[in-house]
Amino acid sequence: MNTLDSLQRRHWLGAALATGLAPAFLRHAWAADQPRFAQGVASGFPRPDGMVLWTRLTGPDLPERVEVQWEVAHDERFSQLVAKGTYMAEAAWAHSVHAEPAGLAPDRWYFYRFRALGDQSPVGRTRSTPAPDAVRPLRFVIASCQRYDAGHFAAWRQAVTDAPDLVVFLGDYIYEYASRADALRRHEGGATVTLDQYRARYATYQSDPLLQAAHAACPWVSIWDDHEVENDYAGLQSQTLDPAFRFRRGAAYQAHWEHLPYPQALRPDRGEARINGTLDWGALARLIRLDGRQFRDPQVCPKPGRGGSNTLTRQACPAFDEPGRSLLGRPQEQWLANAWDDRRPWNLLAQPTLMSPFSWTDPGAPEGGTWWTDGWDGYAPARQRLLDDLAARRVANAVVLGGDVHTHYVSQLHRVARDPASPILASEFCGSSITSPSLPQSRVAGALPFNPHVLYGRADQRGTISFVLTPQRLEATLTAVDNLADPASPVRVAARYVVEAGKPGPVAA
């Protein structure tokens, strides 16, 4: 085992980023001097004996098929090589590489790199998960919603400095829109529709040096939300009710798999893909990831002539409480019911949005409160089914992780979701965006009194949430970027919360 002391790791990474005297995986973060590896390297979906190693070949005149060599070593200089192999990168899959070394030691950090066409990639750093019977602390970061033209990705610098074992990305890795007229930085092209357009958008995002550094620093586990395809889509229904949406969604799903370290087993097939699954961190925790878009029913009461979301009262939309509707799809609901693991001290649920109820007006008024239909509030019976099952399975320490709404929320999930007088069943941490803009903070602050189970709500903060998990407690640190126009912007601590084992509900620290 070569697990580094967390303070050592933080000092090492922080000093490297501050001084520029970084190890290879950070020093070459921009990958500007590796023309065949201009989008950097990444790893993901770690296991006790391996993980996925990713890169994408770039540059002109690439052959249809290119043999790519990969290497894994104990040290950054690769003098202690432990595994190597080849992967055939194909034009049909954007020359992406999804190598899957096996037979590695559990609970260990490794370095990796690629070679192809006479060029060598930047060096990345990754790790295996602990052995199934080992109880080891877990440091992880949740992040979501990184709109390129809304600002620089300064939040990633702090996330890397925190030296996580794992990044859990909760959706909206790219945005499909054309650049705004007032964009802080611009990207080429209009709205993404075709496979080539989605590929080009990922290439733009992955040219960012801070995002490259975050990918190279540790393994990732990812899910998607809507903007990887189109805002507010639901299953095969687009916001514009486009009859050809199936083809756009298929192109987007393919590009998503091509540009992130997904295993080959999750490669899209005939326009569909599976991203839900589980990851076990030894005997400490199970991380469950969900797909909140591909299988959902359309949103209730959309605006005339459109699909997608709306915000309205229960009185104006009786369909809010239709029992048959699902955000996950019934097969995935059943899969989730079987995925909870009451043998482990902690269960972490990675899903794309805010699960806690949130009414913008008094829910006790005759109108029944005002609710947003794209999130779980638009699928309230499905949410209650999830909570009922969680309670029935006696999962002691459940923590829901979310993104999507561009606001830091910390909340209690109650046994009966819309009844804050019922017992607290789980804790929720919904992270704000890396850059994407939100509502005015005054609007969120004005609604908090109607939602007493929500302990913290800040729409004026962009950032991530870092966690330290042990058998005894979960510690959460919410961060906020000072200035999105500055890639070197300071990132400050906005709040800290703790969840003690056996005591559901976050407490301010």
Task: Name the CATH superfamily assignment.
Answer: Alkaline phosphatase D (PhoD)
**Architecture in CATH?**
4-Layer Sandwich
> What is the residue-averaged pLDDT?
94
What is the number of helical segments per DSSP (H or I, 4+ residues)? 9
Task: Calculate Rg over CA atoms.
Answer: 22 Å
What characteristic shape results from the CA principal axes? globular
- Proportion of beta-strand residues: 25-35%
Please bin the fraction of helical residues: 10-25%
Query: Which CATH class is shown?
Result: Alpha Beta
CATH topology: Purple Acid Phosphatase, chain A, domain 2
Q: What's the number of domains? A: 1
Could you explain the architecture of this structure?
This protein is of the alpha+beta class and 509 residues long. The chain has a single domain, classed as Purple Acid Phosphatase, chain A, domain 2 (4-Layer Sandwich). Helices cover 17% and strands 27% of the residues. It has helices at 6-19, 24-27, 155-161, 195-205, 209-217, 245-258, 330-339, 380-392, 441-447, and strands spanning 41-47, 50-56, 65-73, 81-90, 96-99, 109-116, 119-120, 124-127, 138-143, 166-169, 220-222, 277-281, 285-289, 311-313, 346-350, 370-372, 398-402, 408-414, 424-430, 454-458, 465-469, 473-481, 491-500, 507-508. A 7-stranded mixed beta sheet has the order 11-10-9-21-22-23-24. The protein has a 7-stranded mixed beta sheet with strand order 12-13-15-17-19-18-20. Strand 3 and strand 4 form a beta hairpin. The chain starts with 5 loop residues before the first helix and ends with a strand. The model is unreliable at 1-12 (pLDDT under 50).
